[in-house]
Amino acid sequence: MIRQSLSSSSPTEILDLATGTADVALSLHKAHPEANITGVDLSPAMIVKGKEKVFKKELNQHIQLQVGDAENLEFEDESFDLVTVAFGVRNFEGLEQGLLEIKRVLRKGGRMVILEFSKPSGFIFKPLFLFYFKYILPQLGKWFSNDPKAYDYLYESVQEFPDQERFSEIIKDLGFCNVSITQLSRGICTIYRAEK
After folding, report:
1. Are 155 and 138 spatial neighbours (Cβ–Cβ below 8 Å)?
2. Are residues 18 and 91 in contact, defined by beta-carbon separation less than 8 angstroms?
3. How far, in Å, CA of 65 to CA of 22, rounded?
4. Average pLDDT over residues 167-183
5. Residues 100, 139: one domain?
6. Does the pLDDT value for residue 70 go beyond 70?
7. Into how many domains does the chain fold?
8. Residues 51 and 132 in one domain
9. Is the dihedral of CA 100, 86, 76, 74 positive or negative?
10. pLDDT tens digits, residue range 21-58?
């Protein structure tokens, strides 16, 4: 989804935060095969798995992965044309600090693209989805996952995260411009785009 939203841009230096096992980084490479892509994640175990994927696809020269904190990035100012975050912003301990770090490492005119869960709208769909998200999904997690508590946390973190309008205002208040949103799956997820 992030890849499709970037088809019209031509970044040469890309940073993917909360990169996990590098799925988004690999997708970004398909969209921009000439770009240098850096993936950062707090979890060393995730980075190890991501490096294995990158190595198997022989993309080590294009994708570099490292352990790091999105709220305290070890990069110089204005290092990247594009910064992406997929399903990771709601886990920032300091939301504004993380966004300011993104702004700091972006070059002037650079783009930020965030894909995040959001609260769906609709008189009928919203309550049905929230019921599923709160009660059904955690039960499925207990049956199929090694970490069922993660499903409880997922619901709680989505509920605590600012709604689309409020999050867009936060982005604008921090000095980003050309802020736009695209709802996916009736608002279950949202793509936020902004420029420095």
Report:
1. yes
2. yes
3. 8
4. 96
5. no
6. yes
7. 2
8. no
9. positive
10. 999 999 999 999 999 999 999 999 999 999 999 999 99
Q: Which two tokens stand for residue 63?
A: 């994708």
Three-state secondary structure along 27-77?
Answer: HHHHHCCCCEEEEEECCHHHHHHHHHHHHHCCCCCCEEEEECCCCCCCCCC
pLDDT at residue number 120? 72
Q: Are 196 and 107 spatial neighbours (Cβ–Cβ below 8 Å)?
A: yes
Residue 194 token pair: 């902004």
Using CA of residue 64, residue 42, residue 120, residue 132, what is the dihedral sign?
A: positive
CA distance linking residue 98 with residue 161, whole number of Å = 14
114 and 127: one domain?
Answer: no
Q: Are residues 62 and 156 in the same domain?
A: no
Average pLDDT estimate for 147-159: 58
